[in-house]
Fold these 3 entries.
Entry 1:
Amino acid sequence: MRIAVVATCLADSLFPDVLKATVGLLERLGHTVVFPRAQVCCGQMHVNTGYLKEALPVVRHHVETFEAAEFDVAVAPSGSCVGSIRHQQAMVARRGGDTALAERATALAGRTYELSELLVDVLGVTDVGAYFPHRVTYHPTCHSLRMLRVGDKPLQLLRAVGGMDLVELPAADQCCGFGGTFSLKNPDVSTAMLADKMGNVLATKAEMCSAGDASCLMHIGGGLSRLKTGVRTVHLAQILASTTEKVYA
Amino acid sequence: MTTFLGVPIRRSRDAESPIRGSETFPQAAKRAVDDTRLRRNLGRATATIRGKRQAVVDELPDWEALRDSGSAIKARVMAELPALLEQLEANVTARGGVVHWAADAEEANRIITGIVKSKEVDEVVKVKSMATQEIGLNEYLEEHGIAAVETDLAELIVQLGHDKPSHILVPAIHRGRAEVREIFLNEMTGVAVGLTDDPRELAMAARTHLRRKFLSAKVAISGTNFAIADTGTLSVVESEGNGRMCLTLPETLITVMGIEKILPTFSDLEVFMQLLPRSSTGERMNPYTSLWTGVTPGDGPQEFHLVLLDNGRTNALADEVGRAALHCIRCSACLNVCPVYERAGGHAYGSVYPGPIGAVLTPQLTGIHGHDDVNSTLPYASSLCGACFDACPVKIDIPSLLVELRGRAVDSDRGHGLPTGWDGAMKAAAWVMSDEKRFAAAQKGLAAGRLIARKGQITNLPFPMSAWTGSRNIAAPPRQTSRQWFAETHGDSEGSA
Ligand code: SF4
């Protein structure tokens, strides 16, 4: 299949390892990966901060960029960006009076998937042949869980990873407190939520905390690093891409 | 101490209103987050009730269908509200009740106080009611020399503690039992000297206190959970039985209801009697459900008044967001699952309607007047995690409503006064993020971040990012962005071979 990656502005700029792993994994599974060069951002940050008008050109740019590219399906290693593409872009376009753009956004969203959805639902694999010899716990992230309803797809994939000790995270479905600009607008509440999330991660005695969203990992990882816990964060894609020959994390 | 960008300055506007706070959400929440006793009380209580709710919801194979029914009935109520209210009025009147229409809090308070005064009493008993809290009835009655005695245990704790409720259903959720004991010892007459903090002992003390009140009260005031248009029936759903005493013992009963609390037919009640107890207290069925229709000679109150309260509701009804928010049946499930509520507590929302639904309802009922209005911070009091939407028995999509309200708050500020820091940042970001060349240029600027990083981590950023680095590190920007890596490894073409 010809698969386009939605790099997401965050992983593109700050976490290239996530994209390298996503591309590496898909190519290992025999697919062709394209990177529509003009892509930037899905518009989520603007939408969630209330700047819906400002989100409009960002959304338009996303839609035009991916419409111009040739691919079968698109994938983002981020539940929240896919959530935004699926549930917010058309709304932004409609609110901005551009119904044609809303329809185009909806059509594009119809072939855009989050990584675990793409693997399990579209490509039909749960065992991607990965090898990752670590004790890992998994935070499901709110938008994957509730906006996309990915269910246990990430866990199905993780359970098939060789050498890995997957430990259950207590209160896994609770938000880590990132929430995009929520972490800046309500830093005290955000930090309190993060503290509880970190407490649960530490209780698992895992070496790493994983998730399908670089943004949540940036938050959780930022806290774990500040407290010098020695616990790392790792994106789902990095685990799935790792094999005995090549390690992505 | 953290600083944050764009948070409005404090301004008191109707500072006394029970549905409008006097400080911003982040300010009020900070105090709550720092209060370790409060954090513990809230965390424990919400975790318990979340667990109970989930267990009884999981028992029902048709839960999703029930939610759909509840949502559909509510949609019908909103569409036919004027006709349903007239039908209710006609049926209540036909059964010997008296119906009053109150446009706002002031009018409702005046009507109720007038009725109480005509009975020449200086004390009334009350069943816990959001509507009367919303209009500040107790305070109004007090000004007119009438004492209103709350008979719901949690409400009584709040009242005796000279406190404000912090939860829709469990107003004293923020209090531990040692605190309750202290309040009772200080404020109740005739409590046993050796009162301990054993929950049973505390409940017995409250019971003795209340029994005296019930037996002497001539007038009772209640809210209602549901009013049924086609029969004129009112209902109160409760756990302690104190409500039932209020509803049956006094000679006169006054019920105050927000006009959205109506159901078209008696059979609609069936849906809500399954949805409400499971969502609110995590019980299959609540212990006491009282239903009454007008007056019945020789049985129960011989005079019944129903006050229909608007207080901003018809305005809300005319609005997409407001209309959706009016579907709320005040079960409090969204509060109990909300991670923000769990840390910030109910008082941080500055309104008798706290939590996720409060963040929607309060600005709807009282308006947002510019970015320096404390109400403008409420739609941001959520990480948009979506737990509230999942829990809501009538499927109110609270996260989407919050996003829409954020959009309106930003829009209403456009062209007024100085732009906030957020305006500048968001406009610049939109400019950068709608063009790949501008974005690539901005990414180059990020490289500077590596200079201030230590061992790959940045621990201290200037304002406004100091809000982030107050408690979290951030990884140093990489040497190469993802797009640079892809171009380098996959050549100039957009795809791999
Ligand atoms: S919004 Fe929904 S969950 Fe929240 S109190 Fe109202 S009915 Fe219950």
Note: The two ends of chain B are 53 Å apart (CA to CA).
Entry 2:
Amino acid sequence: MRAALVYGVLLVALVGLVLASLLVGAGDLHDLGLRSTLLTLRASRLGAALLVGAALAVAGLVIQGLFRNPLADTSVLGTSAGATLGGSAAVLGLELLFAGRGPRGISPDAVLPVGCLLGALVALAIILVLLQRAGDLLSIILTGFLLSSLFLSLGSLVTSLAQERWELGRAVVSFTLGGLSATGPLHLALAAPLVIAGIGAAWFWAKPLDLLLSGDEEAASLGVNVAEVRRYCVLWIAVLTAGAVSLGGNLAFVGLLVPHALRPLLGVEHRRLVPVTALAGAVFVAACDLLARSLPARGEIPLGVLTGLLGAPAFLVILARLQKGAPHG
Amino acid sequence: MRAVTSWNVAAFVAALALSTSAAWTPHEQAAPAATETHAAEPAAPWTDHAGVTLPRAHYVRIASASLVTDHLLLELCEPERIAAFTHYSADERARGYRFHGKPTIHDTKNVEAILALHPDLLFVSSIGDPRPVARLREAGLPVYDLGEMRGLSTFVPNIREVAAIVGAPERGERLVQSFVASMKAVAADIPRAMRKRGMFLSAYGGHFFGGATGTSYHDVLAFGGLMDAASSYRDWPDFSSEQILAMDPEVIVTEDEMRPRICEHAGLGGLRACSTLGGIVELDRELTVDPGLGMLEAAQRVRRAVYGDGAATGAP
């Protein structure tokens, strides 16, 4: 009953957001010459928001289940930072190496998401190699932390190199702040397979993740291959992160806030949570994006800034409620 | 166990393959079809600095998303054919009035706002993120990328390109001749041996930023009669205090209100430029950042501040 209510609310919100996203924008839909172009642009942007939100929220859910830590986030594994570094390096490389024309066979338009994907895959490869040797949670967290620090440092280097050219510096900073304003069908085609496969895989691994919540030994005694679950969950978290960052940059709080908001309503069973988390994440990011382009401002407010501004207080409220409801002692 | 591994690996490879195949879609270099082609014009299209072709046509609603073309369009094009300028130019204190009465473009990322202006041509100067331009081209708007803005070496070809596209090549050539002649005349009377060593420097948040060889800043210094003390550097470097002390220029050209930030910075008070009257030349920021026609006025002001009046300095 409660699940049906949550789904109902989310679906109504989604329908409202779809309509609003298609109707709101700088252009005038009464302009018949531009109408189909504007709708295509807005539909691409909406599709991107839905994919990014779903990907980040589900990645957050899986990583929290995997680490049995409600504060775990996609940044823990270093793939967000890897994808962001890859995207920034791609923007820089496009100008410095290819003079804005793009490498042979790749549209310049696709260079940035491809860079994100490569960055996330490098981070993922390092994580997986290390997981073969030591698959315990502490090793994964430490490795992810080190990778994040390394990629953030390299990202700062890329940003400082880009600053030597005014517009290039603006482009890199703008990408790192996150946004969907220039998303097109090509980007959706690039990210959608990753996000859809990632969400499907999250649903597939839901049962073992449930069992892992009771501890490694308990799960192993119930027939779960803990190392295998970890390896593949890490793989799919990275895939989801790569898809999300390649579309919208690194958006804060989505993976942390959405699963948190849903657990008190729907419990902790992953198979139940995965689809509703994907839907709620999609709704949250689409709402933030709609707000980003509706607020009266000279330029568009970066999406990453908005998700942070809305996500942080909301997260604190949820945390306070959880602490209030928790037994003392 | 093996089945699980196979399933996951297969799903991962399939997702990756689908994703990367989307990226390898052949890049369409041709711009959209243009309107109302001149019968007298040859059919060969122009090719911009990003390698994209622009059909030869009589463009009647031209929008500028580049500082360079803002001013060039005023010089070369009939006012009624100009659809929009950048907000940078419209917001200028000294020269902004010239752009009033026209819509402004705030950000190329706002694709919808640009399309809503109904331009039939958009000029841009190389922007780092290619995505907005790709969206505009997909929407059927011809976009001409003028490439990087690096002072006279790129500005002169840009004048000719813009002039040809707006259908005023002779007007463009006259502008080139008069502009280059005016730039050369600014400090022509100052012998090389008499020229002082100077550099461009701005300071933000305790960091120092220069404009060296290959930039409009360098051209302003050189045509303004200075030897660029930072000529061994390229582009827009960050300088440490030590590097600035090592160069120790006689003149520092900077932006408004920068003198205290430079000369009161730890260790820099002893610079020759800081201890000499007239050693710090402060220009309007609007002039220093202009990589186009504003270079002439900036060079004239540098020359006047450092050496006093002398050469004839006629605006084009």
Note: Chain A touches chain B through 74 residues (CB under 8 Å).
Entry 3:
Amino acid sequence: MDIVPYLLLATLEGLVQASVLMLTALGLSLVFGVMRVVNVSHGEFFMLGAVAAWVCANLIPGPPYVPFIAALLIAPVFVGALAWAADWAILKRINYNPEATIVSTIGLMYIIQQMTLITFGPDAQAVDAPFYYTVRFPWFGYSGYKFFIIAVAIVLVGGLLYLLRHSKVGLYMRATQFDKETAQNFGIPVTKVYSGVFAVGAMLAAIGGVLVVPSQQAHYLMGHDPLLLSFVVVIVGGLGSIPGTIAAAILIGMSDGLLSVFFSPTLAKIFSTLLVALVLVFRPQGLFGKAGR
Amino acid sequence: MSIHNKKLFLLCLATLAGLFVLQFLLSDYLVLAFTRILILAVFAMGYNVLMGYTGLVSLGHAMFFGAGVYGAGLSSYYLGVSLPVAFLAGILAAIALSFLIGLLALRTQTVSFMIVTLMFSQAAFLLILYFSEFTGGDQGLTLPTSARSFSLFGLEVDMTSDVARYNLALTVFGVVLLGLFAFTQGPVGRLLIAVRENEDRTRMLGFDTYAIKLLAFTVSGGISGVAGALYGLMFGYIGSAFAEFKISIEALLFTLVGGPGTLLGPLVGTGLMTLLIDRLSGLTTAYLIVIGALLVAVTLWFPTGILGTLRDRWLPWLK
């Protein structure tokens, strides 16, 4: 049997998964890096993005790409506003205490998940891809939409990195991350930066959710796996390190894709969860991170 | 042995007496509900040793509850051992697992500790699913009818009888409660609290805080295993749902609501929450929303729980 087509297919699937993972994990990493907050409800923001895409597809008439583009704009705004409200109503009030935020975001996760169950229902819902185009390989045809996912992820991540490095907002974020008190003394509105970062992190997850719907269907429990994998990526990449997160997203996404094709998806998940636990135990700064300050 | 906190000791005895009388007053349905509450309260009490007394928040205790369920259930199902032996096997499995996981997880601090325990627990849950031919996976396994009764020291116990189950659960609960009274109110308990309040200072005083935490972790996991083994054997069913993330969160919620670091808090929390969830799941399938709302509400306005608030305001001996 020829191994090349299988390997190519697995690599492509891995790349698509890595792209979505990169978006979701970057959101989580940004929030952790700047605010030191582990957001357990991050997977639900991802799920809300997917559900919003389904809602758009059902409410907005026209060829499939019209509601899809609408979803790509509406979902992040909606989810970002929700995250901003959660920050205002909960996180700010418990003073971003690390353990209390984990407990309350677990609560938020259940609230969002079950609200979606009540309104959206328990069934998985499919959404049409914005366009159909098949890329022909000598052995098989591959969905052009999946290449589109990869492209969008690269553009967004590139844009985010540029903003972080070269804009005033990025400077504010980095200053807040480096030393909260000093940043505040220099007149940086730290509470606003926190609310903003939490909202942006959620928006990245929501975009990931919208992108995934055409190939995966929307379901109220779909946030679970992306959350777990994002945890894996953020930890393996080094807590709070953006370049580490990107590298780890590609590594984990690819290896998950490869392992899932050649072995069972459960085995791939066992492998990655154990990897996280052991990295945290033996190398808390992550595989790519530098030792903590 | 002299008893330091006599008021608390008397309250424990009164609680046990009250629970014993309860079975003559309640309807059959509520007796069954209270049987479950007693077992889950044992689980929450075990969780509380780590979270309330030692100040380490674990998100992976479903793994130890599951170790109890599977250690007891699988040895009964495949080896056909008698129920008391299966019960011990479940506890031993939980103790061994929690010792091993503690050895690794306790190298990390606060948030990392929460994530490490969560990840180990998730891996354990996935392993149960992966070996579903052996474990029954999410379908689970029903224990054979021969495993529904046993005799110990000439005493015949039939596990299909509601009365027997309630009193057995109450006995285990009582033993764990009094055991934990001795453990937490004695010198070791003070060390746990010392680690919770200021780990660095405790280390500077010459105590091996890693060993103290490992002891707390193992005791906590072992008691969770007691609850798991009892639950699995008593209702004759084992399944992967017992090792889900949700189970860890329930232990956390029960403890938080009742009052972390109080001996009877987990019982109060488990009782209130279980009855509430029971009522609600009759009304809506989305009852988890209540767990979510309560987790948020408790962290926002009620961080010391019911008994913790009572202790802080009026009853300082309530520990």
Note: The CA atoms of residues 73 and 232 of chain B lie 6 Å apart.
